[in-house]
Amino acid sequence: MSDDKERLDRVRVPEMEEILGEALPVLDDGFVRLIDYMGTDDSIVQAARVSYGKGTRTMSDDRGLIRYLMRHRHTTPFEMCEIKLHVRVPMDLWRQWIRHRTANVNELSTRYSIAIDQARTTRPDEWRLQSDINRQGSEGGVDVETGQRLTRRETEAQSFLKEIYEERLELGVAREQARKDLPLSTYTEAYWKIDLHNLLHFLALRMDDKAQLEIRQYASIIGEKIVSKWVPMAWEAFMDYRYGSIILSRDEIRILSLINRQQAAADKMLSETGFTIKDASEVKPTLEGRELAAKLERLGVEVPWKGKG
Amino acid sequence: MSDDKERLDRVRVPEMEEILGEALPVLDDGFVRLIDYMGTDDSIVQAARVSYGKGTRTMSDDRGLIRYLMRHRHTTPFEMCEIKLHVRVPMDLWRQWIRHRTANVNELSTRYSIAIDQARTTRPDEWRLQSDINRQGSEGGVDVETGQRLTRRETEAQSFLKEIYEERLELGVAREQARKDLPLSTYTEAYWKIDLHNLLHFLALRMDDKAQLEIRQYASIIGEKIVSKWVPMAWEAFMDYRYGSIILSRDEIRILSLINRQQAAADKMLSETGFTIKDASEVKPTLEGRELAAKLERLGVEVPWKGKG
Amino acid sequence: MSDDKERLDRVRVPEMEEILGEALPVLDDGFVRLIDYMGTDDSIVQAARVSYGKGTRTMSDDRGLIRYLMRHRHTTPFEMCEIKLHVRVPMDLWRQWIRHRTANVNELSTRYSIAIDQARTTRPDEWRLQSDINRQGSEGGVDVETGQRLTRRETEAQSFLKEIYEERLELGVAREQARKDLPLSTYTEAYWKIDLHNLLHFLALRMDDKAQLEIRQYASIIGEKIVSKWVPMAWEAFMDYRYGSIILSRDEIRILSLINRQQAAADKMLSETGFTIKDASEVKPTLEGRELAAKLERLGVEVPWKGKG
Amino acid sequence: MSDDKERLDRVRVPEMEEILGEALPVLDDGFVRLIDYMGTDDSIVQAARVSYGKGTRTMSDDRGLIRYLMRHRHTTPFEMCEIKLHVRVPMDLWRQWIRHRTANVNELSTRYSIAIDQARTTRPDEWRLQSDINRQGSEGGVDVETGQRLTRRETEAQSFLKEIYEERLELGVAREQARKDLPLSTYTEAYWKIDLHNLLHFLALRMDDKAQLEIRQYASIIGEKIVSKWVPMAWEAFMDYRYGSIILSRDEIRILSLINRQQAAADKMLSETGFTIKDASEVKPTLEGRELAAKLERLGVEVPWKGKG
């Protein structure tokens, strides 16, 4: 360690300098803007080497080391990179966003200032139907006519609430009270600062299929337009070992080791561990069984209960 | 330390057991409910004694030790107590509440479930005027007639938005999207778990005069109806050394040491350090000067620029 | 939600009450003692139901819901349980332990108090050899004679340092300075309070094969003797979905889908993605290749490069 | 807010660039090195203005705003600055340092690498005596002869432990076990990254008179040589409103308002609230009374019980 006591130059990523301050548009009126960053892939390696010292010399190169750290969930070196964004987000999404506690936040205060005069609007073709299977999800869109009606009514609602808000301000009502009936679709703005490890955790959850479409759009922009440029090796490792990975439980491991070799034993275990149930004479997957089927398909393994019954 | 290895009984506070599960009402439809707690004043002492060991024997008693810890901001022993509440709060307040990051939270999800069919309503006499002096505050109420008009319009707005929300659900719109124009006044519910140190920090900020009236009501209920019973010694120490304390800056200390002894020097320093400005021939306080005046009044010291000019 | 506003009884786990205060021994002079706990499996379910509301009614039972939450890394309901332990640990282990930041801690201060007069001692058969493969690990033990010599020398070192410490105290040296040459093996004590989610994270890392043997012993005691009694359903789910799980990366998924069906394609991909290298005419696994082999063995899948060359 | 969407240049502080990478020496072999930083005074203002919007326009200038934020403990804008240091610190100090949990850390691992071959040594004139009054403090030095003896014995102890460590490594003992009897004075190194708000909190505690001399030296170097250059306005505000401030409790405020005006009432209250006790016929201060006396002296107010009895 003592050999790096010479003068340092500050880490700089040319591709990041290029987009500093640029508002990358999201939704109808939102954005993500890069304000500042600290460190890059090199800084992850630098921090890992202080921890592991000569222990890391055998790692063939920086990319290998970063991939090793990601694979083995050695998370602290990733915390050595920090990023600051300026975002404009509807409040209903912000309510989800703010649940990630390991970040520094300065949000526009509607006690101090008048609220942003803009709410997230929905085009007729953007209305989604409630999913029957996934209680927290959506599935497919509404028909054209319904979409038009919903959008028309949305405009009515937003106009009316805007009128109410302005009326209150004109009558001298305190801003902290006037805002109380603003719709959740009202845009807010914030400075949001977070380290790379926690940002990747945010992205893993919010780029996921199960995340709400709108927040997924923010997460994708942050991941693909910013993080991939900032720390390309860490991003690649994240996509390989985390975003694109699957986790197999203890039971799933056992079942997989039986499939194709002891079909009867596999079937028995599937039923005993609750992946399948027998309904009349038909073998059907449970919720967890359907999740296993999706993993097997990704693994190129035939789903055992297909065609049974 | 080794002498306390015998069997323990779990800490139990009879006054807390009595209010377990009871919904203490706040606002028109909100509440705070005690769900569980860990520890009491004794646990603070117990933890402090593991840290300071025999060093604490000289403290005359538990109360003295707790007061010493509070006075010297030795915060870790207070973290050894934990409390869990169930709260029902309008979303605009919840947006402030959730900014306290060192807490565990489970909030009702309006992606999974239908939103609570209740919004915070305002009586005609509850509407407050925007403060001229304090940009984030309110001051005084509106006149009766205006209050009635504001409440009538609030009812209209809330009814309309409720209609819109129900209409969307009936048309099959996904809950995650249907909720987007709910008013911020809509109630939400959450389990909220926090340690005593961080709870007192929350209360110090939210029981403060500068906090919004509505969140102050929640904070007062939590402080006065729950914390004061749970950890009476810590609560008393908090009121004495924190809530009821004032902080004097370096300049304020110097000025105070001059007042009554070297009036001219005090006046000079007040002006030089920006507590007063001379406007025409009149000496007037700045923002920071007004803050100092409030402190001097609490200290029984005459405000030097009173009656000057 | 509103239907549970009636009176509550505090959650109590009889099996936990039995071990309250009991010092469970670890190493030669360490221990773990349960001081208090908040919640149990029921509390996880209770918190999840406030979040997901009626959305959880379809879950057949509490066990099913807890397993679902664990499987899908819905971590916040697990944070609703809290535990407080009193531990006695050598300082070199404590230095690892304290790296888990999301806990409340009160440690014995050797500024206030005289240090504990006990250091971790090593029996002749407990000395382990440095692993050649794993830079941070140990592998096998030393021979009997060497073990005896090492233990003899350990005694000499610990006695000498004890003498030095006592000499300093006798000469009136400040405790904060007298302690500076105590060996890292000196025992310390602390109160340690943490929520269940973060405790399970601690256990996942510290019960792992790669963790140092000594801290693994603490983690196992905490897991098997305490957590398994406290929250039996969450513990079972943790063992199934987390401790006993394996993670397959994007490349591993692809390779697995090729094995047994397109052997040549699998071999090609293994080499291209860096799981194997060709050394002379022999196909050999890389570090990541060895990790994959271990996963394949658990999955009952033949390792493709076995017997190649 | 929308008017700042143009291109940004990254914040750069010339005085900080000059010291990047330079090892600022502390103690006999320690150092603090600046590795990187994010933001400066401007960034605090920038973040505050997104929160308070037009509400901040009335603040005459940036300095005034920063001072207002510091005075009113509006801490979040200070979190928008981040700094990364490389430090070399004896392990006994590091054990205190690491208690500040809101930081990112990568420490040299003595499982992976051989420990640093250097321990903190003490010159004969550096040995301090245990304070009688302050259980956790030191007061005055030992005499020359004792100092020489202590230093001689320190050298013996450190040499012996070094020998033991090397012997173990030569015999092939695993590094994770070989290290167990290293003295706490052994140097360690770490990368330490923290936001400005939490750094100032660290400095407030560790630059304090009551902090151990050695850690105070690190804190002073960080504060005076680095932070004062990085964020000069925030540093000045910190020194005025936090480091140089005093806090008066509710009772102290009341007593101060009585002194000089109702001496008898003040005396009565001092006794009733436990600041003084009557011992024989003498009025003596308690521990809290001595603390009050120190505050009164700073305020230029005569201590009421002086010369009483």
Task: Give an overview of the whole structure.
- Four copies of one chain form a homotetramer.
- Chain A is of the alpha+beta class and 309 residues long.
- Chain A has three domains: 2-115 and 186-243, Gyrase A, domain 2, CATH 3.30.1360; 124-181; 250-299, no CATH class.
- Chain A is built from twelve helices and ten strands.
- Chain A has helices at 14-19, 41-52, 62-71, 91-97, 144-170, 175-178, 196-206, 213-230, 232-243, 250-258, 263-272, 287-299; strands at residues 23-26, 30-38, 82-90, 104-107, 128-130, 138-141, 187-195, 246-248, 276-279, 282-285.
- In chain A, the strands form three sheets. The first copy, chain A, has a five-stranded antiparallel beta sheet with strand order 1-2-3-7-4.
- In chain A, a hairpin with a 3-residue loop joins strand 1 and strand 2.
- In chain A, helix 3 (62-71) runs parallel beside helix 9.
- Residues 1-5 of chain A have low confidence and may be disordered.
- Chains A and C meet through helix 3, helix 9, strand 8, helix 10 and helix 12 of A and helix 3, helix 9, strand 8, helix 10 and helix 12 of C.
- Strand 8 (246-248) of chain A pairs antiparallel with strand 8 of chain C.
Brief write-up:
Four copies of one chain form a homotetramer. Chain A is α+β, with helices and mostly antiparallel strands. Chain A has helices at residues 14-19, 41-52, 62-71, 91-97, 144-170, 175-178, 196-206, 213-230, 232-243, 250-258, 263-272, 287-299, and strands at residues 23-26, 30-38, 82-90, 104-107, 128-130, 138-141, 187-195, 246-248, 276-279, 282-285.
